[in-house]
Design goal:
Blueprint (H helix, E strand, L loop, with lengths): L1 E2 L2 H14 L4 E8 L4 E8 L1 H5 L3 E5 L11 E6 L2 E6 L13 H4 L4 H8 L11 E2 L15 H13 L12 H11 L16 H13 L5 E6 L4 H8 L3 E8 L5 E2 L1 H6 L5 E6 L12 H13 L4 E3 L8 H8 L7 H13 L2 H23 L4 E4 L6 E6 L10 H12 L1 E2 L1 E2 L8 E5 L4 H18 L13
Parallel strand pairs: 7-15, 8-9, 8-11, 11-12
Antiparallel strand pairs: 1-4, 2-3, 4-5, 5-6, 9-10, 13-14, 14-17, 16-17
Length: 452
């Protein structure tokens, strides 16, 4: 016999006082794959004033019934109860989503054996962070807007999951144009672009669907999709055409389970910008196959209600930045944008010009973003197996770290981030030249005088 403890006894007394002589019925229900069991506790006024008891007994009065089932008797009524089986050892396992989550960049970079040359200072051309070298500081208006938001004490609590109405209106006003007008309900604020990508994929795709992702392309699309049980199909970009989409290959990958086409423009890692004519060709492929497009982090007519629901999985983006959005978007000087673009363009030109004359390398001039892709004629570098091996040895000998394009599903290229100071860019290109001249092997002829 099990007697309800004093806490519950007092609680029942309070309930009795409030409800007078109401008969209480508490039903606890749990269902499992194999069977359903119910606990029923029934009491009357006398039970409350005195004590409630639960009597447990086996049906045959002596032992275990099938599958460990016994009966609990409450006020003379008998109810079936199944014995619980408890774990005897600790077995805390990670989820399928966690096990299926893999960032290719981290997997490749973390596995590289890199030991920089101690006689040369390290130059990291692999980090896609424009602020890391301190030469591209934020505009003063941005810093002041954030300070004002903090000082106002208006943005210290929780915000709506999709963002403050005022902040969303600021974004809508800033990006709206006559060709593509935006209303406040068209805007959902997220915690960075990564969450925006996560929401876009999650709202449009189910496990077993597939999405089309550019190759080479930003690795996070694959990381997020695979973790959700979504297949990733890679469509080719053409380096000889400034990384335009191979439209024939793209369309050949579409089937009845294709739920999303991802187009990155400007591109990471390529730095390419599609012409208007090429974008129209991509739109025709998508239209012909009734396929929605995720264009970077920009959303248009993509199940608005679904995105709102998904945004409620978290407590919304940073409130301080939301409070500063008005000042950031409307008070930042145009000169800041112009100077930043000028610097990136100048550095890209320096890098392209310096590496174009290096034997065995084929840089491709970017049109946007802050990246430049460089092809490796790997057959002329017999000391290396692939782009990972090439970039690994480049660090070891010259202390220049570039990101192998295998991280972007594209072998025998490497990516350079062009945000370093100009003198550092020139130094890095000089070291890359020295490295290639040391390891480059020109075409050889066999005994018959034929080119290999």
């Amino acid at each position: 016999m099990y007697v309800l403890n004093s806490f519950w006894h007092r609680l029942l007394q309070d309930v009795s006082t409030l409800m007078q002589s109401v008969v209480g019925l508490f039903l606890f229900y749990r269902s499992s794959r194999d069977d359903t069991m119910s606990y029923v506790v029934q009491m009357n006024e006398n039970d409350v004033q005195n004590k409630a008891t639960i009597n447990c007994k086996h049906l045959d009065g002596s032992g275990v019934i099938e599958k460990g089932t016994h009966h609990a008797s409450v006020n003379g009524n008998s109810y079936p109860v199944k014995d619980k089986r408890r774990r005897e050892t600790w077995q805390v396992k990670s989820s399928l989503m966690a096990n299926n989550t893999l960032n290719p960049i981290r997997a490749i970079v973390d596995g590289m054996q890199v030991s920089p040359n101690p006689d040369k200072p390290m130059i990291a051309l692999s980090i896609g962070d424009p602020t890391v070298f301190g030469n591209l500081p934020l505009d003063d208006a941005v810093i002041q807007a954030i300070k004002d938001a903090v000082d106002s004490h208006k943005y210290n609590g929780y915000a709506p999951s999709i963002g403050y109405l005022k902040s969303r209106q600021v974004v809508a006003n800033f990006y709206s144009c006559s060709e593509a007008p935006l209303e406040v309900d068209d805007v959902i604020l997220t915690s960075g672009c990564s969450q925006a990508i996560d929401l876009a994929i999650s709202v449009l795709c189910n496990p077993g669907d597939n999405i089309l992702v550019p190759r080479p392309g930003f690795s996070l699309y694959k990381t997020l999709a695979v973790s959700l049980g979504i297949e990733v199909k890679l469509y080719n970009l053409l380096p000889e055409k400034s990384w335009e989409v191979d439209l024939q290959h793209l369309e050949s990958l579409i089937d009845e389970r294709t739920s999303l086409l991802i187009v990155t423009n400007p591109s990471n890692p390529c730095g390419s910008v599609f012409t208007k004519e090429h974008q129209q060709k991509i739109l025709k492929v998508a239209s012909r196959n009734c396929l929605p497009i995720l264009a970077d982090e920009i959303y248009s007519n993509m199940i608005r209600l679904g995105l709102v629901k998904l945004s409620q999985r978290i407590l919304g983006p940073c409130t301080i930045i939301q409070g500063a959005l008005d000042g950031i978007l409307n008070n930042t000087r145009q000169r800041f944008y112009d100077d930043t673009i000028h610097f990136l363009k100048s550095n890209a030109e320096i890098c392209f010009n310096e590496l174009s004359s290096v034997p065995g390398l084929k840089p491709i001039m970017p049109s946007g973003a802050m990246y430049l892709m460089v092809g490796i004629d790997i057959e002329h570098f017999p000391d290396f197996q692939d782009d990972v091996d090439f970039t690994e040895k480049l660090v070891t000998e010259q202390s220049v770290f570039c990101l192998p394009a295998t991280a972007f599903e594209y072998a025998n290229f490497f990516r350079i981030v062009v945000t370093v100071p100009e003198d550092m860019m020139l130094d890095a290109c000089g070291r890359i030249r020295d490295f290639c001249q040391c390891h480059y092997r020109p075409d050889r002829q066999d005994n018959n005088g034929l080119d290999h």
